[in-house]
């Protein structure tokens, strides 16, 4: 393995379930020590792509490399170096939260301190609770702890904050940022546009198995040269907003420039997705 190899390289990946094409010629590269968000509506092919990177599915067409290795052929070598947080748990229903985390820790050569990790993720209080009795957010946090306990070089997290309350979401974001500071590569899937905007260095937008846009959140939301975006450092009171509108109206009339619309509030990745697909991301 060469150290210069990217964290993840997906090249022309095609994945089908029967007649259904789930991933349709997808290529993307994830650089090391970055947070990359794979964004798209339900059924876009995000989980299938991640599972192929994790070595759970063999590419039908195309190739996938993780840390320069083939996730299927080089599975034994790769497995200790990656962390995986699956959508929907990955623990037995009767196992207690800390038992599960300690069990996973014992599978690794140099695990993190499980008590500290559990405390950090707010699992301290429910350590003795059986998995099936944990709330959705607690199950998510346990899944994240299981993915991180082995000190992975790259962590794949599928919808990391689905079902979490705002506080747990912020803690998770902080933790993922700290991982990046420590040189860990984070690849996450999300439906939440604000999550991608807040967290990701690089965003890949996937729709119907195809990559439709890639870039930093800033690049993706910047807009075309015909779009003027004014960013002010405080919320505008209604009267100021009205005065600004009037001033723009006067200025545009003086300069014979037609202003198609004036909107207050920023362009978001949601706007980008809508422009590219004509559909809203939540409803696919
Ligand atoms: N095991 C399977 N058998 C048949 N079809 C499947 C299977 N898994 C996924 N699919 C289909 O493949 C497509 C891509 O699914 P995938 O789970 O990869 O998308 P996703 O973007 O992760 O969606 P979500 O956000 O809902 O998790 C969907 O149309 C889905 O219905």
UniProtKB/TrEMBL annotation:
One of its GO terms (molecular function) is ATP binding. Gene3D superfamilies: P-loop containing nucleotide triphosphate hydrolases. SUPFAM superfamilies: P-loop containing nucleoside triphosphate hydrolases. Pfam families: ABC_tran. Residues 8-233 form the ABC transporter domain. CDD domains: ABC_DR_subfamily_A. It is a peripheral membrane protein. The keyword Transport applies. Its main location: membrane. This is ABC transporter ATP-binding protein.
């Amino acid at each position: 393995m060469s150290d210069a190899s990217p964290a993840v390289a997906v090249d022309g990946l095609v994945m089908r379930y029967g007649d259904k094409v789930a991933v349709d010629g997808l290529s993307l590269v994830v650089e090391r020590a970055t947070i990359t968000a794979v964004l798209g509506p339900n059924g876009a092919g995000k989980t299938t792509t991640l599972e192929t990177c994790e070595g759970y599915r063999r590419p039908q067409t195309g190739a996938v490399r993780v840390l320069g290795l083939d996730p299927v052929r080089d599975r034994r070598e790769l497995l200790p170096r990656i962390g995986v947080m699956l959508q929907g748990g990955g623990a037995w229903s009767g196992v207690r939260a800390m038992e599960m985390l300690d069990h996973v820790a014992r599978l690794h050569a140099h695990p993190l301190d499980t008590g500290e990790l559990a405390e950090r993720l707010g699992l301290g209080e429910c350590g003795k609770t059986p998995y099936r009795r944990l709330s959705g957010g607690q199950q998510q946090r346990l899944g994240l702890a299981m993915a991180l306990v082995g000190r992975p070089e790259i962590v794949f997290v599928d919808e990391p904050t689905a079902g979490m309350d705002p506080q747990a979401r912020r803690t998770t974001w902080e933790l993922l940022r700290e991982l990046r500071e420590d040189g860990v590569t984070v690849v996450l899937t999300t439906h939440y546009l604000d999550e991608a905007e807040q967290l990701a260095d690089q965003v890949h937008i996937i729709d119907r198995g195809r990559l439709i846009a890639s870039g930093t959140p800033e690049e993706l939301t910047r807009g075309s040269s015909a779009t003027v975006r004014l960013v002010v450092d405080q919320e505008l009171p209604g009267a100021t907003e009205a005065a600004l509108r009037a001033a723009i109206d006067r200025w545009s009339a003086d300069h014979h420039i037609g202003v198609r619309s004036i909107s207050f509030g920023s362009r978001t990745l949601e706007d980008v997705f809508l422009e590219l697909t004509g559909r809203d991301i939540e409803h696919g």
